[in-house]
Amino acid sequence: MKIESTIENWENGTLGNDEAFVEIATDITSREVDDMLALQMISIRLQKSLIQDLKDLATRNGLGGYQPLIRRVLERFVEAEMKMIARESMSQQVEVEVEHDERLVSGC
Prior knowledge:
mainly alpha, 61% helix, elongated
């Protein structure tokens, strides 16, 4: 039976966790991996208690560590903010169009 290649199946480990398909990549550096994934190293200072909480949450969610969790949190935040900005922009555009239509109607 073939398992569907969905994000959920990769994230929950249904796909990608079978040791039969594991191979050590000897000719690749971490810099090359970062380049392939478009990752950039940053430095950030966080409270020790926050880091421990993030580690605990990452463990609870089956992630390899707190850094993947932080990436996920930031991705979700940015996506939500971008959607909010888009909604606000669309709302403002609708308001402008309504005002324009009202002026046209009242001018007749």
